[in-house]
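ok so for the tutorial part 2 we go from a plain amino acid sequence to predicted structure tokens. step 1 is just haveing the sequence, like this:
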Amino acid sequence: MAIVTVNKGYQILEKTRQVDPDFAIKVLSGNQQFRYTRAVQKKDDSDYIYLTRHIAVCPFCGGWMPAYDHFIRNHTPKKCFTHSTASEWCSIRSLLDAGDKHISLYNVIEPGYDLTCMYCGKESSYSNKKDEITFTKEKDVLKVSCNINNLTEIINLEWAPRFDVLSFALCETITFNFKRGTVYFELHTKDGARVCIRDVTAGLPLKKQNSKLSALINNNRFVITTF
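step 2 — the prediction. this is what the tokens look like for a chain of 227 residues:
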């Protein structure tokens, strides 16, 4: 048995890098500045500039994208820095300067945005939650299972007939019998009692909203792309 953790939606990561002033000037005076959130020059570490960026991670292909309003809306914002202003801001600090020097650059997207991946083209909503998918292999049979956690996920089970919801302690399983050449979905309780089953060997359109397992089969591609 193997357990794989998958993201339920896109996530936003914060990354900070330490660079020397010359490199910071190059980044902040060019188009790379559009990929950063803020810059900081610390009072007790004036030899370096700290550049922070935010990254949206696609839950399907794992692609990294700039997590900023202007990328989502596909427009070019006004530059915060020119070469001269970047050079001035990154210059060696005066002994009279108090505290750290901060500059805000571009706004991070709000979690309410639906995001279309610039690599795989699939759309997702923001979520910091994860699903656990269990893979079980016995001879010629592979079972892939996940827990059903709420009413919305039950409603999205388009393959299943309507049934009375007695409990949310349910699991969805898709079984591939390679010897018989059959595939079927099953809904059961966590102690193994079957609620319903459907043979989909002849074919079932696995739409995005059919179920969590349909989305997993349809969309997840473990290819990591960074920028």
